[in-house]
Amino acid sequence: MSLETEAIKPHIGSIIRADRAALCEDDATAQACLDLLEQRGVLVFPGINMSDAQQLAFTDRLGDRVNYTSTASGSDADAQDVYTISLDPAVNKEPFYVLGTFFWHMDGVTSDIPPPRATILSGRRISARGGQTEFANTYAAYAGLPDWEKAEVADLRVIHSAYASTRLVMEEEGNDEFFSHARRYVKEHPLVWTHESGRKSLLLGSHADRVKDMPLAHGRSLLARLLEWTAQPDYYYRHEWQEGDLVIWDNCGTVHRVVPYDETSGRTMHRTTIAGTELVS
Ligand code: OGA
Ligand code: MN
């Protein structure tokens, strides 16, 4: 097993230089990546240039892939389960989901299945302007809270909804169908997620709409402040993409977002997803 790792910042991010074949084929290498992911939140494989087939093989080594039936257009392999992230209207007929990635979020928080354990993104075409992906470590953010604040948030519950994130990217007027769909995805979660490992993290993002049993303004202010706390430089990493980079993030222990880019940028990412194993609530 050959994993050469280098911490990016004390509280988030590691660069990994590894043999591509070992990542795709060797279980011990995959396990080492999973362990490191849990500790570091984000793993960066600079210029590893994985094909779709290799990315899928690596994904399968790490866990159960979440099935996306959307095949990547312009992909170089049998790309079932590879999701193309693009704002190009020729590629993506429903840009709303991609626009939603402009705001801090975790993937899959309002669905009935456990939130994905990890998301894997490979950079296929890079935007000249914008398009950097930002991450913040929600384990470190929780751990860094003063004791009085840990006590204050310990038992709070938060209502997450697809409606809350949808209203950030489109007007309600004229989009009834979209909003009635979005309104169906509502989930209550604890603000502090105690994982099976015993570690605790904050569960935050654009989908966090309100704090249960708290006046609306107080709850929303608290959620906004905790998100600002989480995104402070010590817990934060911004990835400046180069073509061929591959990045994995721990979706249960980080929030992420992308710096806005436009539909003419050509920015194209290929995404695979590893199923989660822990229901939060
Ligand atoms: C996602 C996502 C960010 C990016 O795929 O879930 O948030 O940088 N992507 O495209
Ligand atoms: Mn996302």
Strand tally: 15
Contiguous helical run count = 9
The largest sheet is: 7 strands, mixed
Bound molecules: N-oxalylglycine, manganese (II) ion
Helical content class: 25-40%
Write the H/E string, N to C. Answer: EEHHEHEHEEHHEHHEEEEHEEEE
SS-based class = alpha+beta
Question: Over all CA atoms, what is the radius of gyration?
Answer: 18 Å
Low-confidence stretches: none
Q: Assess the beta-strand content as a share of residues.
A: 25-35%
**N-to-C terminal Cα separation, in Å?**
37 Å
Strand order of the largest sheet: 1-2-3-13-5-15-4
Q: What general form does the structure show?
A: globular
Q: If you average the pLDDT, what whole number results?
A: 93
Give a description of the structure.
With 281 residues, this protein is an alpha+beta fold. Helices cover 27% and strands 27% of the residues. The protein contains 9 helices and 15 strands. Strands 1-2-3-13-5-15-4 form a 7-stranded mixed sheet. The termini are far apart. The site of manganese (II) ion (MN) has 4 residues, from loops.
Labels describing this entry:
three-stranded antiparallel β-sheet; seven-stranded mixed β-sheet; alpha+beta; 281 residues; binds N-oxalylglycine; binds manganese (II) ion; globular; 15 strands
Summarize the structure.
By secondary structure, the protein is an alpha+beta fold. The protein contains 9 helices and 15 strands. The longest helix is centred in the C-terminal third of the chain and has 15 residues, at 216-230.
SSE layout and pairing:
Elements: E1 3-9, E2 12-18, H1 20-25, H2 27-40, E3 42-45, H3 52-62, E4 83-85, H4 96-99, E5 118-125, E6 133-137, H5 138-143, H6 147-153, E7 157-161, H7 162-166, H8 176-182, E8 186-190, E9 192-194, E10 200-202, E11 208-211, H9 216-230, E12 236-239, E13 246-250, E14 254-258, E15 268-274
Parallel strand pairs: 2-3
Antiparallel strand pairs: 1-2, 3-13, 4-15, 5-13, 5-15, 6-12, 6-14, 7-8, 7-11, 9-10
